[in-house]
Every structure is written in C-alpha cells, then in structure tokens.
Design goal:
Number of helices: 5
Strand content: 15-25%
Shape: globular
Strand order of the largest sheet: 1-3-2-4-5
Structural class: alpha/beta
Number of strands: 5
Largest sheet: 5 strands, mixed
Length: 114
C-alpha cells in the first residue's frame, strides 16, 4: 500500500482510480481494515494518508472520523466509506461507484456484512 503525503497526493489521485484510506496508527478500526484494503489491491490501486502526519489533507476532504476510505478518479472524489466495514461491503461499494471497465475484476460476492 502506497503512503501518500502533500508532495505525492495530487499526482496519485490525478489519473486512474485509486482508493485512499485516511487513517492513523493508533486507530484500531483502521488497522482492522488494512488487510481488507490490501486484498482490494489486486483490482484497484490503494493508498493511504496518515492524518496525524498530513492533517491538511484530511481537512481538505472533510475527514472528520477515521477510518474514512475515499475513491478518487481523475483527481475527483467519487465515493466515500466511513468506518470499518467487511470486505464484501467494500467490493459492493466499488462496483457501485466505478464503471465496470475500471473495476479490473473486483468480485462482488453478495456476502452480507458481518
């Protein structure tokens, strides 16, 4: 997972879709979704922003609670998930917010969130 900061953020979100996790190392729900986001990396780029180190990026996108996961494409936010969710939730969310051609194989398994 790519770590973003002020110097790399705008370039990372400028092109192809990227999921950005706004997180902090002390946040247990953030740590809980880390393996879920890592599993999504086979289908979509995933990056993260440590809000303790980059508070201005969190402010720029109105991140008021963590984890907050946002999908960016062409420099614009396309959708947001607040809080820890099951992998099936993230897969369904991506299927809703991304055109099918951009998904690159995100499998929507129809599982219910735990």
């Amino acid at each position: 997972m790519l770590d973003l900061d002020r110097a790399t953020f705008d370039e990372a979100i400028a092109g192809a879709p990227v999921v950005v996790d706004f997180w902090a190392p002390w946040c247990k729900p953030c740590l809980a979704i880390e393996p879920i986001l890592a599993a999504l990396e086979s289908s979509v780029r995933v990056a993260r922003v440590n809000i303790d180190e980059e508070p201005e990026l969190a402010t720029r996108y109105d991140v008021l609670a963590i984890p907050t996961v946002m999908l960016f494409a062409d420099g614009e936010p396309r959708g947001t998930v607040h809080g820890a969710r099951a992998q099936a939730h993230f897969e369904r969310w991506l299927a809703e917010v991304l055109p099918a051609a951009e998904l690159d194989g995100v499998a929507v398994q129809g599982q219910r969130d735990a």
